[in-house]
Amino acid sequence: MAREQLGICAEANLHASYLLFNALEGQEAVMRQKLARVPILLARLAEHFSEAQLTGVVAIGANYWDSLYPGARPQGLQAFPFADNDNLALAEVWADLFVVVRSDRLDVNFIACQQICQLLKPDVDLLEQLQGFRYLDGRDLTGFIDAPQNPKGSRKRQLTLVDPITQPVFAAGSYLYLQRWHYDLVHWQQLEISQQEEIMGVSKIEGTLLQPPRLHPNSHALTSRLGKAENLPPLVTQNMPFAEQNSQGLINLSYASEPDSFNRQFGFQLGCQPSRQGEPGHSANQYDLFFDYCHADLCAAFFAPSLSFLEMACRPTGK
Predict the structure, then answer these.
(1) Which of 79, 100, 119 is closest to 239 using CA atoms?
(2) For burial by CB atoms within 10 Å, which of 80, 124, 192, 318 has the most?
């Protein structure tokens, strides 16, 4: 049975570090060997710093996959969708590799990232290193509970891990989408709490869905549920706020067992899905209301293969 990377379904941590790399051409055989060693490195550190609850994820960019693993490709793996949309400016980053490190100790994250960079050099260039942190026991910088509807338990595994029946080669892998959102907190904080709640579609304290008529059809919560309150979100998210002197926002990771899950949800939020046409009160300009208070400057699509796949693919014969 294929074994998934432990960071995909891990519980929330206090700190997260994100490494984006570009790989040098002609080093694919070496990279396959090194990427198989990253989970081993993380497992060793997790055992040494057991109280830190360290986990991680190694993911390969959609545009680099065929160079690294030419023998097979996950179904539907493609570059980040909706890069050109009238309702939201999206900036796609062309990253070959993405490594996520999460734990309850920032120093352990630092050690793990340092060792991963040492392992992968000189065959990669580090494009960017991002840092996220847990805020007010799981709230977003808007003050709202982050993803209160996130699935739990077996439902989480069902939504994130590729089914072995549909794609046996990629069983226990996961489609991964990265977005970095910058918040306009100056204007957001000028809103009344009742206005913020109607934009988000949930109560600010409890995180529960508002009741009609306060529940706007284009609220953040309802568009995440494809327009119906009874729907469960089709994705599992791992979000972390980030904050610098002049920039604050959210690093959003979305995991899915099939790529259409993300396309459906994000397309619905952008107001560009055909299924939205004909809905009561719908117009071509309707989209997630929260998009008026944020913008994404970094978007990328990856696939996080199973540990079994990483180990198998690094063998000289590829078998």
Answers:
(1) 100
(2) 80
The two tokens of residue 87 are 């309702």
Exposed e or buried b per residue across 71-80, where buried means at least 16 C-beta atoms within 10 angstroms of its C-beta? eeebeebeeb
Beta carbons of 242 and 133 less than 8 angstroms apart: yes
- Distances, alpha carbon 140 to alpha carbons 3, 137, 240, in Å: 32, 9, 8
Per-residue b or e along 49-61, where b marks 16 or more CB atoms closer than 10 Å to that residue's CB: beebbbbbbbbbb
d(CA 233, CA 149): 7
pLDDT recorded at residue 278: 47
**Amino acid in position 117:** C
Cis check for the bond before 305: say yes or no (omega within 30 of 0).
Answer: no
- What the block records as the tokens of 146 is 């982050």
Residue 186, token pair as written in the block: 């100056």
The span from the CA of 2 to the CA of 173, in Å, is 9
Q: What is the mean predicted confidence (pLDDT) over 128-145?
A: 96
Question: Rounded mean pLDDT of 237-243?
Answer: 97
Predicted pLDDT at 161: 98
In 3D, which of 238, 276, 301 has the Cα closest to residue 8? 238
Tokens coding 173: 């892998």
Q: Name, in order, each residue with C-beta under 8 angstroms of 218's C-beta and a sequence gap of 6 or more.
A: 271, 286, 287, 288, 289
Distance in angstroms (rounded) separating the CA atoms of residues 314 and 29: 7
State the residue for tokens 């072995």. 164
Q: Could you give the C-alpha distances from 292 to 38, 55, 75, 215, in angstroms and in order?
A: 39, 34, 33, 17
- Which residue, chain included where needed, has tokens 């002049």? 246
**Cα(121)–Cα(42) distance, rounded to whole angstroms?**
17
